[in-house]
DNA sequence: CGTATCATTGACGTCGGTCAATTCGTGTGG
DNA sequence: CCACACGAATTGACCGACGTCAATGATACG
């Protein structure tokens, strides 16, 4: 459990003690109505790094709230290639999809040790039915997911290798993520291998390596020993920003 | 209006006459409760081909139900490149995003003449509040969107050019889309330019052209005069199928 | 310490991009 | 009805980003 770079796996005694509650679906509930999810939930579970939370094709009967740790969602192509769809952090809601009873469309692997809070899949629609606030919250989360997906697609489909990597890594600086000004010199733990970065961005690990060297040599950022250091935020931004408006013809 | 390959623009007199109702958000309502959306909706609107429905950065105050025609959702990169995020057909719900009051994160352009049904943005949360069935339906649509997004990302990030194009085009055969066996020889109208296909797949139009020639020469499919003809479904599938299960180690 | 995984680097090949010219197709105006 | 214009499609020549193959180092773990 010592390798969890996200802090120690957190398994709160009760939902009231859950420190990340606000960032999850449960955050939609008033503190005095937590009994709703408390009764609904099956258990907490700690899952070791490098194991799968669930697999594509599987008929899962649980749904998860990610409490701590890092999880990669991915698909395997016919060629054997792996496409990482998202990297998830605490607060994420995992295993949910349009057709709850159908086999899963993607797999999830724990990158670090992970703590999840387990809900029954069967009864889930009923829970949403009974407590519309939860549905509303989940809806908001899904909408954000769609937007994040667009971002990822735009990155992979529209940018060069070095731009892709810069954009991808920038999203792991929390300050930047929350639209504050990240600071040059900021350091964050990043438990991803170069292969994973490649699988997320549609590039090979060797090329990721060469790109990381370029980014280092250009004084933009450094990734070493699972630690990411920001050197030149402005430079990175110039490389990866969307045009705010849709600048059509003059 | 004659160039609409999707059929003539349909603007039903009332929601009860709406032939595509079942495929939209409104499909969640019983036929005898259509007054709900009927009262809520502002108007219908016909929009000519090659114009924008909305633009990234804009503060939109409407939301749309796409009644007929083809719409491309896209983003413009800093480089000027355009990434097409999705191609939408009738039934799609357009202009919705997590933060309704924030500027839009992507743009939408009408590929053909288009008919939309217009809802007020402001009052929309309240509508969902009052009629949870609509919320549930919308949630299902969003979940499908997420899955479609994963598909697109997997296609762009994980496959070679020819595989990408094959996969992309296959999705326009309705029978295939609905998981029936499309038939060799099937023909469908496809009002996309080669440039659009390229913008969706992260490839240049000239390369799309070369790939289409290959697909033709290999007897897989033909795209000519905005018409797509399927020649060898099995061959195409072999090229683009995901491994059903996540075939991990033996 | 021995082994496994990850990172790093070089040599070389290829897929897809760029530039540019030509053809095709459709719509327009005379 | 024909001439022209414009965007889309098509093709060739050339080049560069990225992939492949393979060898070597660095780290972590039992």
- Regions with little confidence, pLDDT below 50 for 5+ residues of chain A: 1-5
Structure class of chain A: alpha+beta
Oligomer: homodimer
Beta strands of chain A, count = 11
Q: How many strands, which pairing sense, and closed or not: the largest β-sheet of chain A? A: 4 strands, antiparallel
Structure overview:
2 copies of one chain form a homodimer. Chain A is α+β, with helices and mostly antiparallel strands. Helix content of chain A is 33%, strand content 21%. Chain A has 8 helices and 11 strands. A 4-stranded antiparallel beta sheet of chain A has the order 1-8-3-6, with no helix packed on it. The first copy, chain A, has a 4-stranded antiparallel beta sheet with strand order 2-7-4-5. Chain A has a 3-stranded antiparallel beta sheet with strand order 9-11-10. In chain A, β4 (71-76) and β5 (82-88) form a beta hairpin. In chain A, α4 packs across α8. Chain A is globular. Chain A starts with 34 loop residues before the first helix and ends in a 10-residue tail after the last helix. The interface between A and B is large, with 58 and 58 residues. Chain B binds a DNA duplex (30 and 30 nucleotides) through residues 160-161, 193-195, 203-207, 209-213, 225.
